[in-house]
Specification:
Structural class: mainly alpha
Strand order of the largest sheet: 2-1-3
Radius of gyration: 21 Å
Low-confidence stretches: none
Number of helices: 4
Mean pLDDT: 87
Order of helices and strands: HEEHHEH
Helix content: 55-70%
Length: about 160
């Protein structure tokens, strides 16, 4: 039951991560010109920054969750590995969906833009790797928790025989 509660907690963190991504991300801005809607090279960096923000939020959130949940649930052993990977992957999808759903719309969908307007691009993740960062960092947190717990157990055993 505790594993289910911690898993639901990670999914809730996926919702929070999506909202934080929406808040922190600074998407590229398209400019309305006489030739149409264009993306300048400088503004194109915003597309990369959106992905980096998504990855950073996922890495920090999942590592911390993996570390704490791994420590609390350590008696469950190897079962945590696939569960953590799946739950963190689902959390990344929830965060992505929320950011895309609540974020800016496609500039081509804006009705009657004026010349010189700057229209934010939608939040997009155009590769699989950013989604894989979330489970990788959840497992890294689990690994650190297991290592620290094992180390603590070893020191405790040494004290008993010393």
């Amino acid at each position: 039951m505790r594993l289910v509660l911690w898993s639901v907690g990670m999914l809730v963190l996926g919702v929070v991560g999506g909202l934080v991504w929406l808040w922190l991300a600074e998407p590229a801005e398209w400019e309305v010109t006489a030739r149409g809607i264009t993306l300048t090279e400088e503004a194109a960096r915003g597309q990369f920054a959106v992905v980096v923000t998504f990855v950073g939020i996922g890495a920090v959130t999942c590592f911390c969750w993996g570390w704490v949940a791994g420590h609390v649930l350590r008696e469950l052993g190897w079962v945590l590995v696939p569960v953590f990977a799946i739950v963190a992957g689902l959390a990344s999808l929830i965060a992505w969906w929320l950011g895309v759903a609540l974020g800016p719309t496609d500039p081509r969908d804006v009705a009657d833009p004026s010349l010189g307007d700057r229209l934010p691009a939608p939040l997009e993740i155009d590769a699989v790797a950013p989604f894989l960062v979330w489970p990788m960092f959840a497992l890294a947190g689990l690994l650190v928790a297991a290592w620290l717990d094992r180390r603590g157990d070893g020191e405790h055993l040494m004290a008993d025989y010393g």
